[in-house]
Design goal:
This protein is an alpha/beta fold and about 500 residues long. The protein is built from 18 helices and 23 strands. The protein is globular, with a radius of gyration of 23 Å.
Amino acid sequence: MTEPVETHLYIDGAACPASDGGSYEIYNPARPSELVGRAAAGTVADVDRAVRAAHAAFPAWAALSYDERGAILRKVAAALTEDSALVDARARLFTREHGKVLRETHLEISRLGERFVQSADYAERLARDEIIRAPRNDTIVTRQPRGVAALVVPWNWPLAILGAKLPQALMAGNTVVVKPSANSALAPTISLHRIAELLPPGVVNIVTGSAGRIGDALIGHPLVRYVNFTGSVDVGRHVMKVAAENITPVTLELGGNDAGLILNDAALSRDTFDSLYRAAFMSTGQICYALKRLYVHRSRFDEVVDGLRAVVDAQVVGDGLLPETTMGPMNNAKQLKTVTDMIGEARAQGASVLELGQIPDPELYAQGYFQRPTLVVGADPTLSVVREEQFGPVLPILTFDSEDEAVALANDDQFGLASSVWSADTERAIAMARRIEAGYTFINAHGPSANDGNAPFGGFKKSGIGRNFGYEGVTQFQGFHSIAGASGLLD
């Protein structure tokens, strides 16, 4: 058996235990009795020390040019992937603590490095000021970093989501305190330690532990000047309230109940059904912008159900470390119950519930937090599996008869994170996409495998505030600064 790992905090340039010596245990969701490791349980005092270290490091880091910061970010990106043996060990650790299949953990690690390079590539653009010449004034419109940024990372895709926050905050000139989720803290913390070691002391600080114990202390700290949070609506609402005490601006990337619209002219090949499977069931469906509601033109409904059913039923459910596994367990018992309750309600209400996939090890399946990939065919629109975010391996499939109806169904939701339109006519698909209330719409694709990190990402309605990714993801961490004088100042 692999020995449990132990991770520490990282404050002011050094790894350290929690101030009271506390830690907590993380278990394998595929084998809930298997201890994977222990993470330091940070205290309020640790949060304060981390924020103050970041505050002290801020002036020197902010004084660097964009080119200088970009060069450092490129070194970080190279260091994250230069040792293939260490990368594989980190990936295997992450699969054990999280549950997702090994190839997805490798994807997350590579994405993290890519985002550092991408942010560094904005150096020249970020350095350009806007010049306004008016009859009475000349004005320079520039931007400056905000200060200490608190980055709160969820458990579902922590490494990839770090890549949507951390390099952008650093490139913008901020220093940071990162709080990984308590549910998957080991591999992310090890990755963060490697990053922090390559930066001046205090620029990146890491505090692990329970949100209930240290979350408010971080979000509400008077020296935190910006908060970037990814997680649930309920917690995001609380984060916003706590941040409001200090008038601290926030970026909130919250839930999604993403609709996919398959039009009557969609090309339905095996590749299409593979894409739909990944869109809905990648990472066992535990993705904020996974495909969560599939609306199909009535003329193509049976074809879509049959094609998707064949692909889903071929998946192998089991331990994510095994090469034959294509879908692992859910991350935790609470989320598993949420999903199984939805499936139970749909079945009780008479929906056609198809629990699919192959289970080579029934004993393991019974022990772990597993749920077979499930299609709910012809679901009643009032069911919770349609109205609420499932965040698990279940997909309701419904019909529509017209484009107007399809758009209305997609928009009839509290969320507005992402969506997709599937059609052989690109112009038609784009025209429909423009009518959907979502921050991101895919054409003939959906989800992380199709996401363009050069574009801003975020949502409308209860899906959040602000944007991550892209150039705009960097400037979210800055404030505008206008420098003006009488006309002729800039001559």
